[in-house]
Amino acid sequence: MNDALFWYWVLMGLSVLAAIIIVIRSVRRSRFSASTKKEVGSILRKHGMLRQWWVYNDVSVGGDCPVDHLVIGPFGVIIACDLYQKGSYYGDLDKEEWILAEGPQEEAAQKSRIPSPLYQARKAESRARELLGKSHIYNTPIDVFVPLTQDQPAFITGGAGILLKRRELKDTLDRVKYDKDNQVDLAAVAKALNLPAKG
Predict the structure, then answer these.
(1) Predicted model pTM
(2) Is 28's pLDDT higher than 70?
(3) Which distant-in-sequence residues (6+ apart) come within 8 Å of 141 by Cβ?
(4) Distance (Å, rounded) from C-alpha 18 to C-alpha 36?
(5) Using CB atoms within 10 A of its CB, is residue 79 exposed (0-12), middle (13-18) or buried (19+)?
(6) Residue 76 contacts by C-beta under 8 Å, 6 or more apart in sequence?
(7) How far is 45 from 90, CA to CA, in rounded Å?
(8) Any residues with CB less than 8 A from the CB of 66 and at least 6 apart, and which?
(9) pLDDT (0 to 100) of residue 179
(10) pLDDT per residue over 102-133, tens digit each?
(11) Which terminus of the chain has a smaller tally of CB atoms within 10 A, N or C?
């Protein structure tokens, strides 16, 4: 009887320990992901510092379409939703959900479906165009990106030029098109999108 009770408490202790380890790893992973998302915001700010860009992080377009980063500049608008969780990603660019595989080995990886950040960014783009139209602001270029904050492997069909590792994001922002002055009224665009002015 005492042996059964002993092993019961050993198993209970191991179960509690396993649960604590899982929670700690999850919290650490979440904090690390949050810090890598901040790095993308920092890249956008540094590139826009001398170019009169207004950079917003963790905002909602029109109050109902959340995005990780939104930039308004003389060139137009950038909308970006991050791919920030650690793991490998699979799917088609235009699907609403992608597959996230987490784990050290492909066979043992834990797979789950996640909302496509590109789908969310395109929803925000559509909402932005609607709001700009209501404010009689037309022909404002809007670009959509999905930054990979941790250089995760992403096997997304058709993702070239949209899914960008940090180095690729920097190179993209250095293009001439983002130095171009398209006569965008930053304050008017921000007001139309229900965002605060930064000037």
Answers:
(1) 0.78
(2) no
(3) 75, 76, 77, 182
(4) 27
(5) buried
(6) 140, 141, 142, 143, 182, 184
(7) 30
(8) 58, 59, 60, 120, 124
(9) 92
(10) 766 555 568 888 899 999 999 999 999 999 99
(11) N
